[in-house]
Design brief:
Elements (H helix, E strand, L loop, with lengths): L1 E2 L1 E4 L15 H14 L3 E5 L5 H10 L8 E7 L11 H8 L4 E7 L2 H8 L3 H17 L3 E7 L1 H7 L1 H13 L4 E6 L6 H15 L4 E6 L6 H10 L4 E4 L13 H11 L2 E2 L9 H12 L16 E2 L2 H9 L17 E2 L7 H8 L11 H16 L7 H12 L7 E9 L10 E9 L2 E9 L2 H13 L10 E9 L10 E8 L4 E8 L2 H27 L2
Parallel strand pairs: 1-10, 2-3, 2-9, 3-4, 4-5, 5-6, 6-7, 7-8, 8-9, 11-12
Antiparallel strand pairs: 13-14, 14-15, 16-17, 17-18
Helix pairs in contact: 1-2, 1-11, 5-7, 6-7, 8-9, 12-13, 13-14, 15-17, 16-17
Length: 531
């Protein structure tokens, strides 16, 4: 099996995506996750660009990694200074990584109009930098920035820039599709030419961006043409429309194309590690991602579900277990008895498709969806509905009342709303209050405060997303709304829902479902632990 070196740039190129700002501790956690996955390289930042990256590399020196090598990133020396005088190169050396990535210009326009250097000066900068680092014991991966644009405009000069890196001692030539606009056949021809000229002397790599939606496809094409080094970001984060998504690339290369990217036994960890990186990044994992997304193996249409239950190969290109994901059957008015019984049997294997409770659940679902519920996006609320129907549910508390109020101008910065709840847990009465930046946030805090004495695990729950959908715009402010709340306890995630003409009531319904779902799962985990 051909081996492909995977270089993950989540901590460098990925951190340039909108809304992403990693702390040093975040970076250390992500390094451990990527090493657990088994990538070859982790491009962890540019030590010469900011103090945070320099601090990271100093702290990372004590890390013990099983698979990956940390890589520091930097640019070729400045045109008017020597390598020894270049502060960025000295910072790169101080990071003390065995491998370094250096980027330089391959497009003549970038050299003359952006760097304001001559074409000869640029070649000298590339060669000198690679040679300087090589002589100081570093393995140099050379990133040829704008290579494909440069190759289209002036192929002779683009190839000379690669030759300069090879002359300086670079061991990998990574061709960067920096603007993300290269079409597949153009990229294929350019990679083939580079492999033919340099492939026997050094490894050829690929680094693509997704501006044309082709980052994954172009990366796979480069491998077909002989590239054995692939750069990207695990979840595709990055500037503009992002980088090549490594979770998709790794799965495609290893499962479909027979290329070894990570240890075979680690492939089953792909989904869980993607979830972990998403959680650290504080960006929800895209449900539509191939292989690792929540919807990657989700089925909704009744005929599809029936076929998959008979033989998953009917509609699934790989088994979800291969990448550590799971099959999901979405509940809706178009789902049939086969899907319902599959869901019910998780809680009561003795119920058959012909049992009256199945027809009752289907009727409830259709009636509720007519009112505005949409269970395909609320797995937690649907599970509670099924449990109530089959007698596998017991309420954890009883609500006496809740109250919410708001104040403008603010009494205190960030506190717009106040809530009070009164609940009963068996014979115990609890009254609690909460303050928040809105009525739902205040209710959430008040309910947690009321329940934490009886059920301490509610403090683990974190609301990761909150959505409100107006169901009937014609009724204006009297419209019914659907509220979806996505929650997580750090290891599992679930979605619950409420529908009402009152947005606070709909939110309360979704919030209560979320807490009860968590508490039920905790009881089941504890029970299974002791049987």
């Amino acid at each position: 099996m051909v081996s492909i070196d995977i270089l993950d740039s989540t901590l460098r190129d990925g951190s340039q995506g909108e809304g992403i700002s990693y702390s040093v501790q975040d970076k250390l956690h992500i390094v451990k996750a990527l090493d657990e996955l088994g990538v070859a390289y982790i491009e962890a930042g540019n030590p010469g660009s900011n103090p945070k990256d320099m601090e990271f590399f100093q702290r990372a020196k004590g890390l013990k990694l099983n698979h990956a090598k940390l890589v520091a990133f930097g640019s070729t020396r400045r045109k008017d200074s020597s390598c020894a005088e270049d502060a960025n190169l000295q910072s790169l050396l101080s990071a003390d990584t065995e491998d370094v990535v250096i980027f330089g210009k391959s497009w003549d326009f970038q050299v003359t109009d952006i760097l304001h250097a001559t074409l000869k000066e640029n070649l000298e900068m590339i060669r000198d930098t690679c040679e300087y680092l090589t002589k100081r014991g570093r393995n140099v991966i050379y990133d040829a920035e704008h290579f494909f644009t440069g190759y289209q405009k002036n192929s002779e000069y683009a190839m000379k820039s690669l030759q300069a890196a090879v002359d300086g001692g670079a061991t990998v030539l990574c061709l960067c599709e920096t603007k993300g606009g290269c079409m597949m056949n153009d990229l294929r021809r350019a990679v083939a030419a580079v492999v033919e000229k340099f492939g026997k002397a050094v490894k050829i790599g690929i680094h693509t961006h997704n501006d044309s939606g082709l980052a994954v496809a172009n990366s796979l094409i480069a491998v077909e043409e002989g590239a054995t080094h692939v750069q990207g970001v695990l979840l595709g984060f990055g500037e503009r429309t992002g980088n090549a998504n490594l979770s998709t690339i790794i799965a495609n290369l290893q499962i479909k194309m027979g290329k070894r990217c990570i240890p075979e036994e680690n492939l089953v960890n792909l989904t869980s590690i993607c979830k972990r990186v998403s959680e650290i990044t504080n960006i929800p994992l895209d449900a539509g991602l191939p292989y690792v997304g929540q919807n990657a193996f989700a089925h909704k249409a009744g005929m599809h579900i029936d076929a998959v239950l008979k033989n998953p190969a009917a509609y699934e290109h790989v088994s979800p277990d291969t990448v550590g994901n799971e099959r999901v059957f979405l509940m809706s008015e178009v789902a049939g008895r086969s899907m319902i019984i599959e869901k019910i049997n998780k809680f009561d294997p003795g119920i058959k498709k012909s049992d009256p409770v199945v027809a009752e659940i289907i009727k409830q679902v259709k009636d509720l969806e007519h009112e505005g519920y949409q269970f395909e996006g609320a797995d937690g609320s649907f599970e509670l509905l099924v449990r109530k129907a089959i007698g596998k549910y017991q309420p954890f508390f009883k609500l006496h009342y809740y109250k919410t109020s708001g104040e403008i101008p603010l009494v205190e910065d960030g506190l717009y709303a106040f809530a009070q709840v009164k609940i009963a847990v068996e014979d115990h009465i609890e009254v609690a209050a909460g303050e928040g930046n809105g009525p739902v946030n205040a209710l959430d805090k008040a309910l947690r405060s009321a329940l934490k004495t009886f059920y301490p695990s509610v403090m683990q729950i974190r609301l990761t997303d909150y959505k409100v959908r107006v169901l009937d715009g014609k009724s204006a402010t009297a419209s019914r709304v659907r509220v979806l709340i996505e929650s997580s306890d750090g290891s599992d995630s679930w979605t619950t829902m409420g529908v009402s003409c009152d947005v606070v009531e709909a939110s309360w319904m979704a919030l209560v479902d979320s807490f009860e779902y968590k508490l039920i799962k905790d009881i089941e985990k504890k029970y299974h632990k002791y049987i």
